[in-house]
Structure formats: C-alpha cells, structure tokens
Amino acid sequence: MATLKEINQEIAKLKKQLSHLKLDVYALEATPNQKEAEKEQLQQTIKQLKSQLDEKLVEKTSLLGSDSSKLDDNVILRLENLTMKFGGLVAVDNLSFDVKKGEVFGLIGPNGAGKTTVFNCITQFYKATSGNVIYRNKDNDVVDLGKFKVHNVIKEGIVRTFQNVELIWELSILENLLIAGHTLYHANFFDHVLKTRRYRKEEKAVRARAMKVLSDVGLTPYMHAYPLGLPYGTLKLVELARTLMTEPKLIILDEPAAGLNDQETSKLTETIRKIQKDYDCTIFLVEHDMGLVMKLCDTICAISFGKQLAIGTPAEIKQNKAVQEAYLGGE
Ligand SMILES: Nc1ncnc2c1ncn2[C@@H]1O[C@H](COP(=O)(O)OP(=O)(O)OP(=O)(O)O)[C@@H](O)[C@H]1O
Ligand SMILES: [Mg+2]
Fold this sequence. Notes:
Layout lengths: L3 H26 L6 H29 L10 E12 L2 E12 L3 E5 L6 H8 L7 E7 L5 E3 L13 E3 L12 H8 L8 H6 L2 H20 L15 H12 L6 E5 L7 H17 L3 E5 L3 H7 L2 E6 L2 E6 L1 H6 L1 H6 L5
Parallel strand pairs: 3-8, 3-9, 6-7, 7-8
Antiparallel strand pairs: 1-2, 1-4, 4-5, 9-10
C-alpha cells in the first residue's frame, strides 16, 4: 500500500500536469475555429487526469481520515459560530450558515453590520477570534481555511473584489488581467529573464485567457485603456474580470454595484449570472442595492450588529419582520 508521502507526490504531479494542460487549452481557445480535434483530445486527457486525481484524493482521505463529513456534498462554504472581535467591539457575532455550490449567495445588513469583516475572515485577511470557516476546494477536498495564510487562499480557488476599486492604475486593463494571471505560470525566474520557449508558450496562453475573459464581460474595447478616467462601472467590471483569470470556484464580491447607475447595475446583474453559469462557480456577494440582491441571489442572509437576523430565499427575506425592522426601517 502506498504511503502518505507517495500519495502526496502523485497528487502534486497530477495537479501540475493538469495545470499545464489547462494552459494549452487557453492557448487553443485563442483560435476558436481551428484545432477543434486537438482541443477535444486535450479535454479528454484532462478528464482522465482529473479522475486519477479524485482516486488519489480518496486514497489520501482513507489514510488520514476524512474532513468531508464536516460538509454536505452540495455545500462549498460553511461558517461555524464565526466571531470576530476588535477590542471590545464584536463585529461578527457567532455567525453560522452554509453557501451551496453553484448558487449566488447574498449577505445584507446595515452599514457597519460586519459584512466586510465576514469576507475578511473567510479570506484570512483577519484571523477570526473564534469559530471555523470550512471550504470545499478546487479538488473537492474539504479544508479548514483558518489554517491557511492569506496569500494561499487564492490557490484554493477563492478570489475577491474590494469595496473600493483596487486596480494597478499605471497598467492597462489587459495588463491588469495578465498580472492577475501570474499564478498560472510554471516558468521560473530564468525562463522569464531569458524568455525561453516555455515562457513564451505560457505567456501566449495567459494572454489568450485574458482576451477570452475580457470578451466574456464585454470589456474588449477597453483592453488597451488605462483605468484612470474610465467610468466607475467599467472599473468595477475590470475587477470582476480579474477574478476570472485564475479559474475560481468561489468569487467574493464586496458591493459590486456601489457607485453604479441603474443601467450599469442591470448590466452587472446579467454579467454576474453569466459568470456563475459559464465559469461554473459560486458567487458570494455583499450588496446594498436591494434590486440587484433580490433579482440575483438564490439565498440571502441578513445580519445586524454581526448577528444573523434571517436566512432564506429573496421572497422569505422580504417578508421577514426582523429584517424589515432592522434593515428596511420597518417598511
Ligand atoms: N480593522 C478594524 N479595527 C477595528 N474595528 C473594525 C475593523 N474593521 C471593521 N471594524 C468595525 O467592525 C464593524 C463592522 O465593520 P464592517 O466593515 O465589517 O461593516 P460592513 O457591514 O461591511 O459595513 P458597510 O456596509 O458600511 O461596508 C464596524 O463597527 C467597524 O467599525
Ligand atoms: Mg463593508
């Protein structure tokens, strides 16, 4: 029987092979009408490797014991009694809920309710005072995010945007996406310096990925523009596009519609739906725009002073008395 070390080596090898193949697919996607057979062949190989990887992960779990009992099959993220204190202030107070795989989940609440703090605890920007954040990662492995460093969370397939737009202002829109795609590279420092064949091949693939993402969110006309001076709605879209560079599983959006006009908000609503479907990911968002929240979300959790008020479908949340009083001013 294989040892844990051998299994881990096998897993690492398979993951590396898979990420190489995915880059090849990106490169081929740049020429959509050609090389269909080659692409088909690659997808087939990817599928086989994925199933080998699944087997290895099962083997690993049977050796180590399973964490997956902690999470139902259809759940991607679970907050368990999450609490975050800043000195005497309890920003998040014993909060528990599940986010299901593939849904759009909305977190709502008045200003200062603790929404951004919840996001910061999930992405490990803050270490929660107590409680757990359990997550089903890219490989369907169940992990305790509390054990991760903030810069490693992205490797698990979690990406986020910020309440205030955070882009690199000196770079064009396309370059901002290319930078976000840096985790896709296998080429090392010397490959970069010497611009080896491997580096050039990977650069082409990452560029192709960026072009596809820009086209999917309708930003192709802006690819060579610089962020400064662009409409706020466009900048918010660029942030969203940037999250798609790394094949995310869970996209966390902090107030994506803040500062947008009605037309931009309605375009954004459509774009988020499209992303959730086409990129096969789960969306977890905070938003004050109730129109967007009610239209877009499958499940909504309302909080006030860090505590859960209610959780349910948009219709249930609209009807909820506690939510109406705390959040909608008793309307
Ligand atoms: N780093 C920090 N240090 C101290 N207090 C903090 C910190 N971050 C957040 N808080 C406090 O925690 C509470 C929750 O803040 P948070 O930013 O999470 O609210 P929010 O629901 O995102 O509000 P908004 O809708 O205005 O964005 C607030 O009282 C805030 O002042
Ligand atoms: Mg906030």
